[in-house]
Amino acid sequence: MASEAADKLAQMSLNGAQSVSHGPCSNTAEWKTQLQSLSGLPESYALTKTLVFKPKTPKSQTAVLIVLIALEDSDTNSALLSKALDVKEPRFAQADAVQAALGAKPADVSALTITKENAATVQVAFDQRILDSTAQVGIHTSSSEQTAFVSGSEIKSYLESTGVKLTVIDFSLASIQAASKEVVAKPAVKAKAPAVVEGAELIGITVPKEADFSGWYQQVLTKGDMLDYYDISGCYILKPWSYSIWEKVQKYFDFRIKGLGVENCYFPMFVSAKVLEREKDHIEGFAPEVAWVTKAGQNDLEEHIAIRPTSETVMYPYYAKWIRSHRDLPLRLNQWNSVVRWEFKHPQPFLRTREFLWQEGHTAHMSEKLASEEVMQILEWYQGVYRDILAVPTIPGKKTEKEKFAGGLYTTTCEGYIPATGRGIQGATSHCLGQNFSKMFNITVEDPSWKDGMPEEQKKLHVWQNSWGLSTRVIGVMVMVHGDNKGLVLPPNAAQYQVVIVPCGITARTTDEQRKTLLDAVLDIEKELKDAGIRAFADVRDTYSPGYKFNDWELKGVPVRLEFGPKDMEKKQAVTVRRDTGAKDSVALENISGQIQTLLDTMHQDMYNKAKKSFDDNIKICKTWDEVVPALDNKNVVLIAHCDSEECEDEVKENSKGRVDADAPEDSRAPSMGAKSLCIPFEQPEGEHKIVPGVTKCVQCGENAKHYTLFGRSY
Amino acid sequence: MASEAADKLAQMSLNGAQSVSHGPCSNTAEWKTQLQSLSGLPESYALTKTLVFKPKTPKSQTAVLIVLIALEDSDTNSALLSKALDVKEPRFAQADAVQAALGAKPADVSALTITKENAATVQVAFDQRILDSTAQVGIHTSSSEQTAFVSGSEIKSYLESTGVKLTVIDFSLASIQAASKEVVAKPAVKAKAPAVVEGAELIGITVPKEADFSGWYQQVLTKGDMLDYYDISGCYILKPWSYSIWEKVQKYFDFRIKGLGVENCYFPMFVSAKVLEREKDHIEGFAPEVAWVTKAGQNDLEEHIAIRPTSETVMYPYYAKWIRSHRDLPLRLNQWNSVVRWEFKHPQPFLRTREFLWQEGHTAHMSEKLASEEVMQILEWYQGVYRDILAVPTIPGKKTEKEKFAGGLYTTTCEGYIPATGRGIQGATSHCLGQNFSKMFNITVEDPSWKDGMPEEQKKLHVWQNSWGLSTRVIGVMVMVHGDNKGLVLPPNAAQYQVVIVPCGITARTTDEQRKTLLDAVLDIEKELKDAGIRAFADVRDTYSPGYKFNDWELKGVPVRLEFGPKDMEKKQAVTVRRDTGAKDSVALENISGQIQTLLDTMHQDMYNKAKKSFDDNIKICKTWDEVVPALDNKNVVLIAHCDSEECEDEVKENSKGRVDADAPEDSRAPSMGAKSLCIPFEQPEGEHKIVPGVTKCVQCGENAKHYTLFGRSY
C-alpha cells in the first residue's frame, strides 16, 4: 500500500510535502504523542480525524458507508450528519464492514484510503473547518503509522478526483444545529444539484404557506430574523427583530395596568416542592412539566427545587402575610418574567416552548364584583394588544368548565384563528380564581361590615383573587396570520422599522456628487420621518443592490418601502410600496411624514379587516352534527348550540377526530385532531339562531342547549 | 388520671363540652379514624397535634422541654421554633425525657398534661391558628383515648393558669419565615416582656445603623417595603417599592444603549453542559455555583442542563453563526434577564443572591480600538446610574489582572464605598474580552483590508468582543449609603413617590365641609405636581393619623413630605420636610411644582455631595505599609503605590487580615477581612504623590511601583 499512497501524494502535487513515519496510533492522543518526538514537522499544524459510519439501511440494500473527515477538535455530531446527508441513524461502522468497503482497518482509514475503485461504496462528509484552516493539516497516508501535512483544499481536490460523493458540512455549528431542522450543508461544487438560482434558498422563502405550513413558519421565522434555534429542544433565541415586538406589547400593556394601580415586582424563579404542591388541583395540571434543580456545582441539593411553571403558589403565601386588613386591598401585582414548562409534546416556536416570556398579574379584592370587573378590563386590554398592536382579531368569551384554569373559578379568554390551518388558538387568558386559593393560603381580612352580634364566622373574609397572563405566543399568532410567501408581514404598530428608505437609480454613470446629493436627501427623509415619531430606517449600505435590499426587507416584513431615485428627487416625490398588498404609489416630499403616517394607519386597518373577514368567514354555525366535521375539515371553527356539559364536550372531541397518522408532522396531523371548545363567546348569536331555553337542543347530545360554544381544532 | 383530667375540664368552665372515649391513637390519621366512628361530635372541628422537643442544652444544665401545641395541619417548623423561643437545635424529645418531665408517654401528652406542678419543666409554643380557629378544637384529655372539644382561647387560658411559660407563634408563616431572621413571635399577654411601646418594633427601625449594620440593613429593607425573605435561602422577593427603582435604572440605561445602536434580545436561561464548559478559564470561575436541572416531571433528563450564570458561552456560538462579514459589525446585543449563581457563602439581599436581575450586554467589533471606546462609554453610563439616579459616587478604574473577568482581556469597573462599614463595593463592570472568546468560538470575518498577495492567514480577523453588566446590586448600595436610623432615604430620581402630601390639622371640631375643602386642595396639589412630571402621592387615607403617616413614609424613604393643614390653606402655602436632613420649610402654593422640582434637584445634589465627601474623606493615601492596616481598621479604603504583581496583591490581602471569629455574623467579621484590590483608578494621584518610575516603590513589597491601586475590605 505504501507506494500507492506515495502515488497519491504525487497526484496531489504537494510542494515539498512528504509522509513521515512513526509508531501506530489508534486515536488522536496517541497520534499527537507520536508526532511530538519527530522533527522537521511544520511549525503549526492541525490534525484530522476520520470516522466511518453506517446508516440504517433496509436489509435488501447494501449500505453506503459514510467517511467523516474532520479537524480533530471539531464538534462532529451524528444528528447533524444524519440531517446533512439525509441518512437514518448513522452509527460507527463495524471493522468488517469497513474492511469490505475500503480494504482497510478503521484506524488506518483516511482520505487517501478512498480511490476511484472503491468510491462508490462510501460517501464523504467533509468538515468545512478543514477548508478554513490556515494551518497545514495532518492526515494519515497508507496507515496510522504515516502522516503527511497538506492543505485542506488539496485533500478536497483529491477526494473529488476519485468521484466519491462529497458533502461539506459546517461542524462549527454542530451543537447549535443539532436541534434545528435547518442544516448548514453546502453541496460540494462537483456534486449534482438541482438547478436553482445560486444562494436563492438562503435568502427567500422556499416553502409555500399553503403547501407546508409548518415548514413555511419555520423559514419565515429564521429567515425573517425573528428567532434562531437552540441546542436545547423547545428553547429558542428571540432575536432583536422579534424582541422589539415584545417590547411594544409590554409598553402598551404595562402603561395601562399601571394606570389601574397595578405595580410590578419580581418573585424568585425557584419554588420549593412543599410550596409548589400546596394546591392539589392546580399542581396536578403542571406537575408533569415541572423542571427540577437537584444539583448546585458538585453538590446534590438536600431538597429539590422547582422552576416556576406559573407563580400562584409562589406568591400567595406572601399575600397571606401582606394583606392584613381590608385597607390593603386591592393588592395588584404583576411581573414580567419567564416561566418553564417542560413539555414533551412537539415544540413550536412562540406557541409551545419550554421557557417563555410573559407577564403574570396576580390581584386580590374585597368582593367577587370587584374581581370580576378587573378580569374583564384585563381581557379587553389583551384583545387590545392583538387588535391595536398586532392587527389580529380575537373573540372574547368564557372558557368552559373543562377548559378553565385548574383551581380557578372561571376563565375568560380571547381566541384567535389561523386561516392557513383552520385552527383556533388561545390568545390570552384572564382568570377569576374566586376564593379557592385564598382559602388554601388563608388570605383573609376582617370584614369591615361585620358588627358585634353578627356570627363570628362571618367576620373573616377570604379575598377574591384574579390571575392573568399574556405571553410571547402573541408574536407567533401575528406571524401565522399575516405572513405570506415572501416572508413576514409586520403590522405597522408592531414593526421595529415601519419604513425603510432605499436609494435607487445609482448607476455606473452616476457622479460622486449626484450620489451624495441623493443619499443626503434619503437621510433628510429619514430624519423628517423620525422627528414625526415614525420608525424609519435609511438603508444606505453601498455594498448591496436595491433589488437585494427589497428582498431583504420584504423577508423581514417591513410595512412600507420608500424608493427614492434621481427621478423622484426631480419630481419631489418618493415611491411607496406596501408590504401587505404590494401596492405601489407615490407621495410628495412635502409633508411626507403626515402622508406616511396616514398610510401606516390605513395599512393597520386593512390588515386587521382582512384578518377579521377571514375569521368571520370561517366561523360556521352548525345546526346539526352532520355539518360539524365537514366544516372543521374545511378549515372552519364551528359555533354550536351546546348543553355546557363536560361529558358532551368530550364526545364532541372524540366524534370530530379523523384518521390518525402518527408519523405525520404536527401540522399535517391537524385535520385528524378532535375539536376542543375554544370559548363560550360573550356575544351570542341573536335573531333566528338565538337559543330558546328548553327548545333549542345541543347539537351533539340533544339535551337542552345552554349556550353557543365555539369549537375548533386548535393549537 | 381520668378524674384529674375531668377536673381540668371543669376548671376550663366548658359549657357542655365533654370528653369522648375511643381507641388509642399514636398519630392524627388514627385519631381522625377513631373519631369518624363516633356520633355526637361538633359539626365542624379542628384537631391539634402536640409535639415535645428538647433543645440543645449544655450538659451541666437540665433541658427545659418544649411542648408545641398546634393545629394538626399547621406547618410547624423547628427552625422557626428555634428562633421564636431562642433555643438551639430543638429535636424530638426521647420518650424517657418526656416521661421524666411530664409523667406521660409522648402520644398521650396534650395541653392538659401540663399542671402547676410540672409547669417549670417545660415551656409551651402555642399556635396562633388555634386562637384564630372559628371551629372548636379537639384535644386529648387524660390520654390519646380521650378527646374533648373546646375553644382555642380556653386552652390558652388553662395553660396560663398553670404558670407555664407560653409563647404564641404564627405558624401560618412558617414556611415563609424559615429562611428569614425576622420571626413573627408574639409574647403571650402574661409573659414578662420588656417595656416597649406596643407594636413599636413592628413599625420603626429598632437597630441602629452604627451598632449592628447587618441587622439594620435587614430591617430597613423589610420594614421599608423593599423586599421580603423567601423560603429558599439566597432568594428574595423584590417588592414594588424596590422594583420601581430597578425600572428607573432600566429606563436610564436602556435609552442610552439604544442610542448607541444596542438591540435587546432574549436567549434561553438553559445551557447544555457541553456549551457551558467550552471556555475553560471562564467556566472555572462559575462551575462551583452552577445550578443544574436534572429532572422534568418524573423523568430524569438524559443530559443535565445548567441555568445560565452569565451568557458568554450561551450567546457566542450564535455570534459565530450570525457574523458572516465585517458588514455585520458591530453586533451589539443586550438582555435584561435573571441569572443564577448558587453561592454557598452567606447571602445578602441585593448584594449576594442566588438569583439576581441584571442586564448583560455582549458586543463584537472590528478592532480593539472600537471595542475599547464602547467599554469606556458603557462604564460612564454605569457611573451615571449611580450618580444621576442613585446619588452615589463611584470611582472608575481598571481591575488588576487578579481581579479581572475570567477569560477576558481587561475589566473596567466603578467602585463604591459603604461608609458605615468602611468597605468597598464593586458597582458594575464593563469588560473588554479581547479575542479570546472569538478564537474559542471561531467568530471571524474576512478582513476588508486584506488584498491578494498578502499572507493568507491575515485574511481571517477574529472579532474583538466586550461584555458588560449592571445588576440589582445597585439598589443595595444605594440603601447602604443613604439609609439612616429612621429607615430608607431614597434619592429623588430613584423614588417611586418623590413627594407625599399629608393632610394635617383635621380634628374632632373640623366640619365635614372644612374637611372636604382641605382634601380637595390636597388633591389639587397632587394633580399640579403630577402634571409637572413630579411623582406625587396624596395620602388621604382617613383611618391613619398624620403622625402614623409621617413615620410610614419616613420608613419608606420618600424624599419630600408636604404637610398641608387649614392654616397652610389660609396662608396659601404648604410645609416641606426633607427626608435626608429633616429640614422643614414652607413653599407658596403659587408655582409649587417649580419650587418642589428645585427642592428635589437640590436634595439630589446634596445627597450626592454628602456621600462623595464621605468617600473622599475615607480614601487614605498610605506611603508605608505601617499605615495600611490602621487605615483599614479605621473604615478607610487605601490608595497605595503598587507594583501590579499578582503575588504582591495576595500578600496585601494576607497581611491586612485581622483576627477571625468564625461564629461572628458577616458584618462584624469584616474587620478581620484581608483587603482586596478594588481598582487601579483612571485618575492617578498627581503632584507630590505622583509615581516616579524607578523611584517610587511598591508599599507592600518594595519593588518598583507601577500604579496607585485602591485596596479595601470589600463586599
Known CATH architecture of the largest domain in chain A: 2-Layer Sandwich
CATH class designation of the largest domain in chain A = Alpha Beta
Q: Give the overall form of chain A.
A: globular
Q: CATH superfamily of the largest domain in chain A, please?
A: Bira Bifunctional Protein, Domain 2
Question: Which fold does the CATH topology of the largest domain in chain A refer to?
Answer: BirA Bifunctional Protein, domain 2
**Beta-strand percentage of chain A?**
25-35%
Which residues of chain A sit in consecutive blocks of at least 5 with pLDDT less than 50? Answer: 175-202, 659-670
Percent range for helical residues of chain A?
Answer: 25-40%
Oligomer: homodimer
Give the strand tally of chain A. 32
Mean pLDDT of chain A: 88
Largest interface, C-beta within 8 A: A-B, 71 and 68 residues
* Distance separating the two termini of chain A: 62 Å
Structural class of chain A: alpha+beta
Q: Which radius of gyration of chain A do the C-alpha atoms yield?
A: 32 Å
Number of separate structural domains of chain A: 4
Strand arrangement across the biggest beta sheet of chain A: 12-16-17-23-20-19-18-31-32-30-29
Number of helices of chain A: 23
Task: Outline the biggest β-sheet of chain A.
Answer: 11 strands, mixed
Enzyme class (chains A, B): ligase
GO molecular function, one term (chains A, B): aminoacyl-tRNA deacylase activity
Region (Disordered) (chains A, B): 651-673
Protein name (chains A, B): proline--tRNA ligase
